Amino acid sequence: MNAEVKETNVTSLQAKRKFFKLNQEWILLFVLIGLIIFFSIMSASFFTTGNFVNITRQIAMLGIIAAGMSIVLLIGGIDLSVASNVALTSVSMGLLISAGIDPFISILLGILVGTTVGLINGIIITWVGIPALITTLGMLTIVRGFTFLITDGYPVFGFPESIRWFGTGFLFGIPVPVVIMMIVFTLVYILLYKTYLGRHIYALGGNEEAARLSGINTKKIQLMVYMLSGFFCSIAGLILLGRLNSGQPNALQGFELDVVTAVVLGGVSIFGGQGKLVGVVLGVFIMGVLSNGLVIMNVNEFIQMVIIGSVLLVAVGADRVANRKKN
Amino acid sequence: MSNLVIEMENITKEYPGTIALQGVNLQIHAGEVHTIAGENGAGKSTLMKILAGAITPTQGIVKIKGEMRKEFSPKIAAAEGIGIIYQEFNLVPYLTVEENILLGKENTRGLFVDKRKNLQLTQKALDRVGASFSPKSYVKDLGVAEQQLVEIAKSVSKEVDVLIMDEPTAALTGEEIKKLFTLIRQLKNEGVSIIYISHKFEEMFEISDRITILRDGEYIATKKIEDLNHEKLIQLMVGRELSMSMKTSSAQDEVILKVEKLSSTDKIDSISFQLRKGEVLGIAGLLGSGRTELAKTLYGINPITGGSFSIKNKKITKVKSPEHAIKIGIGLIPEDRKNEGLVLGQDCAKNIILPALKQISYGFFLNSRQEKEIISAYKEKLRIKYYPGQLAGELSGGNQQKLVIAKALATNVDILIFDEPTRGVDIGAKQEIYNLMNQFLQEGKAIIMISSEMPELLNIADRIAVMTEGKLAGILDNKDATQEKILQLAAGINSNGEVIV
């Protein structure tokens, strides 16, 4: 008799949880669909194949960097140096190619540069012990300054057509940046949900001390995660180089905040340990549709800034309220 | 007309599932030093929290200077002239000593803080407690003993009639303790009553006028110090002869762990012992005696600064990390399951498999089938009650503890260190945990069990090592061990009545 009562309690609780979990991603999906419908009504040129290709191409870089940022946030960190890192890797590749070095090798070296920036972030955070926010804030400025230094502040030109392909080309009718983004999301999905490293990442973000006492090498994981973030930045740097057909040292200033906005909007907790990659994908799409739609509607650029900022606050606010309710 | 400052009558405090205090009486005279004695968990701290207004009793009367207290809050207790120095410090590290001592009662001139007057007042309070550091120093730069003095200065800077001191000497050295006792005598002459809590017998007998003994939340007796000696006091604290269920030892002859002169920073000083297959070595000692630190040293959290140990005849001089400890066959069930044991925001199954995950993966990739097998095996074996997807943070204390044990068992280690395995766990779950330990021992493995519950140690352990101030005071065989002997060793007195430390 008693056991029966307990059983029903358990199942009803289970049902409640499932419903709640579906809710988070469903809400994001509804918001996305709502935005698409809204912009379609407001502007005839929004709901077209051409524009959708455009949107996906525009969000490719955001998505690739956000994939790395998601993992960083999951371990309870943050990486504010991403946009500077993209600019650095992009001009590094540009300088090497225009200096006559083989493009393939130049790209590999550029990737090495981006990953090294991540490694430096990781070393400072884990070994020196400076909080991630301060470390990567410092690196944001250092890396940007370095980018200006090696270019004297001027754009870099003179690449073969093959480089443009990474930014503007098509593969099976899909823009190359979008293909790369899809590959990146797939890899991150496998990492987070199909390997033990993913479990360790979630455990570390949820309770670092418990993770360490469970025999997890928490420092190694942190180093790996920041390196991965840097690696994805260098991939985005390659796309940027192809899209602009030039290495712009002042590219993407302030873009790191768009990335953080997309990730927390996707439901990743800024306190670590909580959040899903599906949510991040939706968050990235919402950001892309929002900024594309606002441009098409001819909304004043300053108002766009107000809207993007508000989106960040709503996202973080929702996270806080949800956490408060749980406790 | 009596000179009673405090009368507590028939105080009962119930928590869901447990009774912390039952019908306790306490009377404090003006200007006396009154010690509250009892084992860990006897209810001393609960009683003091009620007196300090931090918690409300379920039943009973508290009279302060003859007046019945109607409402319980720290503010009201402070207004009644009751000061308390808690065991844990309540200081703000980034403020100076002066700012801490006068926090919330700074003297002002107009809108501005009267720095000079505040410094004078602070200096006076510091002089009184015999502190030699400046009122301008930051609390974060002070040592533990100095912080303790700040706490004491803070409470004597107010007008108090009763001052409660909860283990004030835990962090102090001999010289500082002497100064503290001088201060206590001085306060006593001024008519202030001191309620003193300590585990150290020497101190109790040196400073107290009377002692009230509590046991398992019940009032046992109040005695004048002249009418007591060590033996009588221990007997009152421990009480009944314990009915021991005969434990069958599964200890074999083969030594699995041999610890030789192991030392670690501050807390662990040259400790040696052996552990045999199938054996439970209990570790007893007061809070801060170094029990947990010993576990942390073996498990690679605290560094080994001297000595070594061998496990299965393999000599180890350095344990790099918990990961390394698990690899060489040592597992730990940490004391604080919420902060050190579990990822509360993750589901139970993922918690169980966490430490073993890497071992069972194919390269980097998860082996879901084996993972599920291990999880359900331990869920069943330990009878942990959770539904799929339930978060670890949603379970009861006993079930959470079983999760932590399941985690450690799943790593297949040879030696398990249990740090307070049954704290906050109900009787039923306790018994299940003991059964699990037995199963583990049957497999020829061994257990080190740290516990503050002496009946538990006497029941479970084959031998009991007693620690005091980072040293091993002695190892007792189960058949010779009594609560009295353990308490005596833990208080730093050996079997010949000599002070060890």
UniProtKB/TrEMBL annotation, chain A:
One of its GO terms (cellular component) is plasma membrane. InterPro entries: ABC_transp_permease. It is a multi-pass membrane protein. GO terms for molecular function: transmembrane transporter activity. The chain crosses the membrane at residues 26-47, 59-78, 124-150, 170-192, 223-244, 250-270, 277-296, 302-322. Keywords: Cell membrane, Membrane, Transmembrane, Transmembrane helix. It is found in: Cell membrane. The keyword S-adenosyl-L-methionine does not apply. The keyword Cytoplasm does not apply. This is Ribose transport system permease protein.
UniProtKB/TrEMBL annotation, chain B:
Residues 6-241, 251-494 form the ABC transporter domain. GO terms for cellular component: plasma membrane. GO terms for molecular function: ATP binding; ATP hydrolysis activity. CDD domains: ABC_Carb_Monos_I, ABC_Carb_Monos_II. It is a peripheral membrane protein. It comes from the Bacteria. Coiled coil: none annotated. The keyword Nucleotide-binding applies. It is found in: Cell membrane. Keywords: ATP-binding, Cell membrane, Membrane, Nucleotide-binding, Repeat, Sugar transport, Translocase, Transport. This is Ribose transport system ATP-binding protein.
